[in-house]
Sequence to fold (91 residues):
Amino acid sequence: MPQPANAAAPVFGRPEMAVAGRLFVVAACTRGAIEVATPLLQAIGQKTFVVSETPNVANLVKLSGNFLIASEIESFGEAMALNSRGGVDKR
Fold:
């Protein structure tokens, strides 16, 4: 009996993107496993990025992406606070 392939496919996108099948998928698995999973990944996502054959690499890419998003939000907040303290109208 063949061993099941290890795979990871975390996604980027909001719930409404998931409903519309417009997620961005970060996949990591063997070539054979990605070929088997492609119909499912195409059903949920607009684009699949295959980053490695090692599953935990996809999870690392997802965490790094989340960190970048959080950093952008934090930077925006800091810039707004700086401008507000300097007397710049928030509007």
Summary: The chain has one domain: 7-85. The first helix runs from residue 15 to 19.
